[in-house]
Amino acid sequence: MHRTNILELVKPRIELKEQALAYRAEHFACGERIINGSELFDQIDCYEEWMEKVIKNTERDTVAADWVLTDTYFACRKTDQKIVGMIDLRYELNDFLKDFGNCGYSVRPSERRKGYATEMLFHICNIARRAGLDKLQLSVEKENISSIKTIVQNGGKYERSITFNNEEADIYQIQL
């Protein structure tokens, strides 16, 4: 059984800027230069510029030409509204994403191993189901045991393996 009452998924907004920057800084301080599920928050210095891009990617008329319709969320703990994770949902897969999948997620280093990723993915599965998707595809590096467990706990089944940039990863499918 999933814990589903600890977190809420919220869309980026200006009021979350300082918290979001602290979230990113914690990843960077731990040597993590890639923040999965952040829609490139790890590569854009200006929060407002990133937020504008994220908002544009939620609408078919304004989504970037090289991207797909995507919703990006902060996972905030209900008790104190602290950002503990980020997750995105890509409603379709283009040629670039076909081996990566519909969803990416990350959890703040100081908040790991508390079940947050499992709950975040559970919420995204519900959002995807309500949007009419019948499955989600996710990729995970073979050595990322915690993420594999998160995917399996949400019904993920191994489908195939890939190699990208000399890294081996597995593709999982979650039937919705």
Automatic annotation (TrEMBL):
Pfam families attached to this UniProt entry: Acetyltransf_1
GO MF annotation: an example: acyltransferase activity, transferring groups other than amino-acyl groups
Highest taxon of the lineage: Bacteria
Annotated keywords: Transferase
Gene3D superfamilies xrefs: 3.40.630.30
InterPro entries: Acyl_CoA_acyltransferase, GNAT_dom
Occurrences of domain N-acetyltransferase (ranges): 7-176
Regions that span the bilayer: none
Stated name of the protein: Predicted acetyltransferase
The keyword Transferase appears for this protein: yes
PROSITE patterns, per database record: GNAT (PS51186)
